[in-house]
Every structure is written in structure tokens, then in C-alpha cells.
Amino acid sequence: MAIISASEHGPHRGYSRAQVKYAASYVVITFVVLLILNIYCSQTCQKLFYQSKQSSMIEKCQLASDEIATLEVLNSSTVTGIVSQMESLKITRLVITDHRGMVLYDSSSEALGKYMLLPEILQALDVTETTPKGNNVFYWKYYDGIMDSRAATPIVCYGSVVGCVYMTEYDVAQGALIQSLQDTILRITFFLEVIVILFSIAFSNAFSRRLDKIMSSMRIIQEGDYSHKVNMGGNDELTILGNEFNDLTERLQTSEQKRSRFVSDASHELKTPLASIKLLTDSILQNDMDMETIREFVGNIGDEAERLNRMTAKLLSLTRAEGRTDADCEIIYMAPTVRQVAKMLRQTAEKADVALNLELEGDTPVLILEDDLYQIVFNLMENGIKYNIAGGSLTVKLSRVEDNAVLEVRDTGMGIPEEALSHVFERFYRVDKARSRQTGGSGLGLAIVRTIVQRNRGEIQVSSVVDQGTTFTVTFPAFDTEVDRS
Ligand code: ADP
Predict the structure, then answer these.
(1) Choice from 395, 416, 422 to test ligand 1 binding pocket (greatest atom count within 8 A of CB)
(2) For 27-179, which CATH superfamily applies?
(3) How do the domains of the chain map onto residue ranges?
(4) Whose CA is nearest to atom 4 of ligand 1?
(5) For residue range 368-408, what is the model confidence (pLDDT) as tens digits?
(6) 473 lines ligand 1 (CB under 6 A)
(7) Domain 330-477 in CATH: superfamily?
(8) Is the dihedral of CA 292, 296, 302, 305 positive or negative?
(9) What is the pLDDT of residues 234-270, one digit of tens each?
């Protein structure tokens, strides 16, 4: 009984958490930034109010102090007299003291005649070596929508401090202005944060939907449907990822198709000699045969076994050719290899009555693995003899065309029909199955040649005329600048 857990095929849990995590951190970061901006704006706004209040209060104090400094006698009645002329001050409370801090005038009359030793007044009257004319003092506090400001300046007469002007102001109107500004900034911050949260949710949802598409496509591919394609839309990194993913599945599909075709072709090809062997052994076992016939049958079994042997050897060679790397390549001339193959095949050619011609003057170095070159030349020359006619010829020519080294293998044999030309490089393809079988052909030789040629950055072409002959042309990039001909 197969049990499939929900988490195996449902949305990926870790991924969902990551999505929330990213969205949350985005929201937190923007919240902190907005909070800092909010605090900064409020502080700046308060500072501006502070500066404007400070200059206006100190100015008022100095105005009063300058007027009072003109008095010849500083007492309660002279001060009250001059203050009554300064109606335009518009402040909450005005206090004038003498140089000891005793109140000569108090607009609220609370402290008249008493000593008023507030820190602001003491500081304004504080005469030291560095401050021989006292200090201008300003104190400011904002709370509950009220701007509480206090200022004190010394009254200086003929260079010495004779008293102090002290003012207080509770500015509710400006306090309300600050409050409303801060409220507005706070509202804007809140509004922006809500927008950020909504956008975060929308973006992370869109992002997760697109990632989900890839994840579900991966699951479909995992189940074996290589034809599936993911359509990401958009024009960003995820689109590129989707395209890469599609390329990958396409390549997987191609290699899977090749693999299954190879397996079915190989098993079909191996089945034929195995079936012949089975048939021959059954015949020997079931019929009364004379020794001569038995010997003939056993000989046939040997031939089939030999064919199986050759086929598996070629299959191995093909697999090796596909998996080999470039590490062992070297720059070599092709002529020595062609001569060596010709030497190997001379006897076969003589037996088949095929004349071998080598035209190797145009030899050009190429970058290749020597074993690969040997295999290419051997397979092509062997075919040129195998599919030739008695009295025919096989010519191998080396030349240089522009930047390429060209190997041409031309025979005067039976040729290949036009409709078969595009198939001869396919695995197990044989034009004339009966004849090829007879000559021991497996249909793998040219497939091996093409694989090796392509792996060495080369190209192979075939042209043929039936009953006149076939020409295989292999082209490699020339490497003649790198090698010494001697
Ligand atoms: P095989 O082992 O059967 O020769 P190849 O892959 O080498 O397999 O060749 C595939 C088929 O192409 C052969 O069966 C044969 O029919 C055809 N062929 C290859 N070379 C030649 C040639 N020089 N002349 C005519 N036919 C050829």
C-alpha cells in the first residue's frame, strides 16, 4: 500500500515560512526607517520653534532692559512708570528685579517687594570675570500642547549690572501648532506603513506564486513528464530561471529519448544473433543430424557469437567515445595514422580486390586524440573496402581548405541511395541489412565516427551516387601554427 504524505506534494512548508520572514523583515525595516524619520521631523520642528521663540523673547527682554537702563533711579515706581509705556510686549508675565533679585515690578503682582531667586534670574545677574555684564538666559519647555518659555536679561547701566528683566510666556497657540504638526507627521507615517504592509503582502504573494510555478514544474518533471514547460512571464531573474529550467528539461527529454531508443535498438540488434543461436542449438538437439551438418551448425553458432562480440565491442567503444574528455588531445598530423590504418587493412583490401590510393601531401595538423583519429580513419576505410566492388578503388586524401584540415575517403563502390544518406550516421542503421549482416556490419561504425568527430570540434559529410561510389569528408580546425613539421 502506497502512503503519500501531504507535505510531499503540497506547498513547501519551509518556503512559505521564508516568504513570511522576508515580508515581515521588509515591514520592520521600513517601520524603523519611518519611525526615525518621524522623530527627526518632530525634533526639527520643535527646534525651529525653540529658535524663533528664543530670539523673540530675548529681543523683548533686551528692549525692556535698554529702556529701564535709561532710568536715573531704579525703584518700584520708576520701573512701573516705564513698563506701563511698553504695552506692546504681549507676554504672560514680566518681572523686573534689582541687582540682588528683589522684585521692583511684577505684572502679576505676586512677588512685588520680595526676593525672586529663580535660576534664570540668578544666572542673568551672575557677574564674573568672563561675564562682566551678566548673561542672557532662555529656558524652553514643550508639554501637553503648551509652549512654556522663560527669558531673563541683565539691566546694564554704565557698565555694571543693576537689575534683571525676567519674562515668562505660556504659548498655547504655538503649542497647538506643534501638536498638530506632530499629529500630521504621525498620521502620514502610519499611512505609509499601511501602504508598505499592503505592498509587502502583494509582492511576496506574487513572488511566491512565481516560485510555486517552478516548484510544481519540478515535481512534474520528477514524475517523468519531460515535455512539461514552465511559463514564468515577466522579465526578471525568475524569468531567466524559468527559461534555464525549460532548456534543462528539453535536454533531459532529448537524452531520455536517445537513451530509450538506444536501449530498444541495442536489445533488438542483440536479439537477432541470440535468436539464431537458440534456433541452431534447438535444431542440433531435436534432429538426428550427421556429423557434417552438426559441424556446419556449430560453425554458424560461432559466427553469430563472433557477431555478438563485435557488436558489444562497438557499443562499448561508442559509450566510451561519448564520455571521453578533451584532456588527452594533442596536435598531430593525420598522415601517419592514415598510413598505419592502410597497412592494417591492406590484406583485406587485396582480398576484396580493392586498390588503396593515398594522397597525403596536403596534410595539416589537428588537435585530436590519436586513438580517436585512428578509429575515424579505420571505420571509414573499412567501409570503403567492405561496400566496394571487386576491381574498385579506395582513395584517402588529406588537404587544407582555408583554416580547416580535410580528410576525404572516396570509394568506387555500390554507393548509398539518396533517401538513406541522412540515416547512415544513426545507430544500428544499415542500408542493405542482408549484405551488411553478411559483411559482419553492426550499423554502429558511422555512429561512432560521427560522435568522435563532433567531440573533436569537427564535421562529417557524406555524398554518394548509387553504383558509382561514396565520399566521406571529415573537417577539423587546422592547428598548424603550433607544431613543427620536422
Ligand atoms: P556497418 O557496421 O553496418 O558497416 P556503419 O555504421 O559503418 O555500419 O554503416 C552504416 C550503413 O551505411 C552500412 O550498413 C552501409 O549500408 C552504409 N555504408 C557505410 N559506408 C558505406 C560506403 N562506403 N558505401 C556504401 N554504403 C556504406
Answers:
(1) 416
(2) PAS domain (3.30.450.20)
(3) 27-179, 270-323, 330-477
(4) 441
(5) 988 889 989 999 999 999 999 999 999 999 999 989 999 99
(6) no
(7) Histidine kinase-like ATPase, C-terminal domain (3.30.565.10)
(8) negative
(9) 788 888 999 999 999 998 888 888 788 778 878 877 8
